[in-house]
């Protein structure tokens, strides 16, 4: 059973960034207004995620570590309307089966927190502890008991880059949450909650990234809403990495959205360059299919054509306004 658990966990958890993703989604699900992420050695030796969300009672904490105990899926139909981010109920037990895992959590209405230590899937202790309301999870020696998986990990720098990119995506996706990211003892970024998206991007990525960005004011059609930031006409990036798309406050990949952006930029971007864009889309969750493969964040839309036209036309219109000078003046 232990071996089966480890194999299953190795399939769900591809690399340290996948652990960070699961824990971040849990913190957001818990309503956290403040999240701190720290990691060392590309996440291989140490990952810590701390939030001020709703926390768990001692019983809930134990339950959370039992595989599938918390699955929110009742019927196959539920897959089609996943609103909350977590839905498989197996992230925590999977991670705990392949690391030295410490969970400290306190629900708001409790005097005490509880601390659970699990090593390689084995419960070491469960005791009361003092702490502020919220949850703190530490994951040490990830994959040390799964040599087959450890062998496939890339260098610390590469694994670190995956984590940094991921946390940046979640931080920009949820500007109302205070985010801090620390790598090997150094602050990568710190961004208090903020309503100014461009300012948020500057805090998370640095001023250079934000400089060519213009506001893309909200557009709406048929229950869809989109807004964000667009790189000024004539500017572009050498990779697709900075075409950042967020659906219902969650970073996702969608060929439809990427191509709509690229097409929207047609004639407004130099050859061989990709748009720099932060595109937010709000859409009825029932119109979105979330790929059930845990490692992917690709989504499909019920009506891909409708979404594509909505974004393509909105982006193109905004870029033509910007190119003409917003108020009828032409920039010299
Ligand atoms: P899922 O998110 O799919 O339910 P997880 O294994 O990721 O499964 O988490 C199990 C459960 O533990 C969650 O459903 C939630 O009730 C609880 N939980 C996990 N992380 C947190 C957190 N940071 N704050 C509060 N509750 C949490
Ligand atoms: Mg989860």
Automatic annotation (TrEMBL):
Gene Ontology terms describing biological process: mismatch repair
Function: This protein is involved in the repair of mismatches in DNA. It is required for dam-dependent methyl-directed DNA mismatch repair. May act as a 'molecular matchmaker', a protein that promotes the formation of a stable complex between two or more DNA-binding proteins in an ATP-dependent manner without itself being part of a final effector complex.
Species name: Rubellicoccus peritrichatus
Family: Belongs to the DNA mismatch repair MutL/HexB family.
UniProt KW tRNA-binding keyword: no
GO cellular component, one term: mismatch repair complex
Keywords: DNA damage, DNA repair, Endonuclease, Hydrolase, Nuclease
Entire-sequence positions represented here: 22 to 353 of 639
Protein name: DNA mismatch repair protein MutL
Domain DNA mismatch repair protein S5: from-to ranges: 201-320
Gene name linked to the record: mutL
Upper lineage: Bacteria, Pseudomonadati, Verrucomicrobiota, Opitutia, Puniceicoccales
GO molecular function, one term: ATP binding
